[in-house]
Amino acid sequence: MLKCFGPIVDKNAKVLILGSMPGKESLKMQQYYAYRRNHFWEIICSIFDESVNDDYKQKIIFLKEHGLALWDVINSCEREGSLDANIRNEEINDFTLFLKQYPNIKHVCFNGAKAESSFKKYIGFNRFNGIKFYRLPSTSPANTQHYDQKIAAWKIIRTLIEQY
Questions:
Q1: Does the annotation count 111 as an active-site position?
Q2: CA–CA gap between residue 32 and residue 84 (Å, rounded)
Q3: Residue 111: phi, psi to the nearest 5?
Q4: Are 82 and 29 in contact (CB under 8 A)?
Q5: For the segment 37-76, what is each residue's pLDDT rounded down to a tens digit?
Q6: Cβ proximity of 15 and 107 under 8 Å
Q7: For 42, how many CA atoms within 13 A lie in the half-sphere containing its CB?
Q8: In what order do the strands lie in the sheet with 107-111?
Q9: What is the rounded average pLDDT of the residues 93-111?
Q10: Least C-beta-crowded within 10 Å: which of 2, 127, 129, 151?
Q11: Which residue of the set 38, 89, 104, 129 is catalytic?
């Protein structure tokens, strides 16, 4: 059984970005989006007009400084390799408690379809009054959508943060 990491979050978080479950390389490195071909860090930094820092601790600081939280929908699962399509026997994180603990989070952005579909299937959107949900294109290299299209879609995060 694979287990996700704890969330990256502090009391100032306004936007929660949810992936499905860390991939093989991320689990090995114990870092979110550690696989070098995943575009997450490159995209999230570029939408704030900053360059990617290779130091993982600096990446975490970057997220918090920009009012972002990061976690995964799936707490544990079985999976061969890193593809979301191979996820089996998923167990979901407790978002009711999490969002009560961090009441400044008003927007949840899903990194890809699997994160959104698992959230919808096991939790649903209706129980979270005042929170808006957005599905963004996956930053995974398995998503063959053009990089510029991914960035264009992910720019909504900066817009959401700038609303505060």
A1: no
A2: 15
A3: -85, 80
A4: no
A5: 999 999 999 999 999 999 999 999 999 999 999 999 999 9
A6: yes
A7: 15
A8: 68-72, 15-19, 107-111, 132-136
A9: 97
A10: 129
A11: 38
By residue count, the chain amounts to 164
Bin 28: left if φ > 0, else alpha if -120 < ψ < 50, else beta.
Answer: alpha
Per-residue pLDDT tens over the stretch 110-145: 999 999 999 999 999 988 999 999 999 999 988 889
> Does residue 39 contact residue 111 with C-beta atoms inside 8 Å?
no
Cross-strand partners of 74: 92
Both tokens assigned to 91: 């167990």
Alpha-carbon distance of 77 to 99, in angstroms, equals 22
Q: Output the six-digit token pair for 127.
A: 């129980």
At a CB cut-off of 8 Å and minimum separation 6, what does 153 contact?
Answer: 136, 137
The one-letter code for the residue type at 141 is P
Specify the residue for token string 């949840």. Answer: 108
Cβ-based burial of 108 (10 A; exposed 0-12, middle 13-18, buried ≥19):
buried
Query: Which contiguous run of DSSP H or E holds residue 43?
Result: helix 40-46
Q: Tokens for 88?
A: 């089996």
* Sign (positive or negative) of CA dihedral 36, 98, 100, 107: positive
Q: In the 8-state DSSP scheme, what is residue 159?
A: H
